[in-house]
Amino acid sequence: xxxxxxxxxSFWKKAARFRALVPVMVAIxxxxxxxxxxxxxxxxxxxxxxxxPGVVQLLLTGFxxxxxxxxxxxRFLVARAGHRGTFLFVSFLAxxxxxxxxxxxxxxxxxxxxxxxxxxxxVLFVVSESWINLYADQSNRGAYFSLYMMxxxxxxxxxxxxxxxxxxxxxxxFLMGALTITAGTLYCRFAGRPWPALPVRTVQPLQVDVxxxxxxxxxxxxxxxxxVTIIAVFQAGMTNMNVFALTPLYGAKIALPxxxxxxxxxxxxxxxxxxxxxxxxxxxxxxxxxxxxxxxxLAATLCGGIIMLADAHVPVLFVLxxxxxATALTIYPVGIAFANSQIDSxxxxxxxxxxxxxxxxxxxxTPGVAAGLMDxxxxxxxxxxxxxxxxxxxxxxxxxxxRKSEPQMVDAAPDCLASxxxx
Length: 423
Description:
mainly alpha; Growth Hormone, Chain: A
């Protein structure tokens, strides 16, 4: 076979693998759109006058608690039902919660629905991320994961556009969200092609003298293997939640108009979405540790620029937020791709669950700290905290760079995981 023929065959093989991935990505985007619409609908419902603040706080904590539980339970569900079966089950569960919100406004019922909603979405994300990492190889893991991140970003955008189209006070928002999730689930089950088979490789035998608990891949093992990923994932959870939740408060404290703060958040989101594909392409061709080092330095520098500008030059502030989103929101997929390139594939579901758990902890724990710093120190303390997190990513990358490169793991997942693609 001539070199030209070999290159052409390789190209078409890669194109076929990418096309096989499209139905999975479409399902993720559609279901994520419905969930985004439900999340906004719940926030709008809880903002109505006359609702007790304690009830609001209770219901808002339901989702993250369920999310944490889903991160812990995902591995066991995948082991029993496979990736696709688990994906379908939790998607129908998410749709059920959407219809449930319409049935009653009773606080106990809504609390249960919020718990189930958080549980379902956590499992869905763990299943999606672990399956993508098992399906990918070293040459395309970054690109595939960046495509997944773009689908989740588009889902958030489409959800907000649906709210705008229907109107924030429309009585049909919950119905639209539930029907959108149902449509994505039915597409995955009936319209989309079966999930492509995972690559089959030689399975490394389990060690008979090691307990099952010790053979799981917990966060502590990831701390030892890839500390940069641990820092990157926590920083990503911290950045996502704080920028979206606290930038309006930051803008109010430095006297920016409300429309301007909304525009800054939009610029941040658009920067992250548009940068996913080129950063994913680069991460498959460059050392991901060096990329994380550069990303951390750039994100910290941009936070410094936002602090220094404040409200002095608003057009430049929009540019800085766009670039900050392009840098900070792409740290997560690069860090995940680096970790999954280093571990045995049988541990990918367990590792994905642990990392998503860490991400959710960054989401839940840090906004209160950031809000307190803004109240007691200064409004720009928000970006001091975020810039410090980005700088720590660079420190972690330096630590990993000092180590010799380990041989890549090529072992396949055990049958209980590989069976998920045959349903």
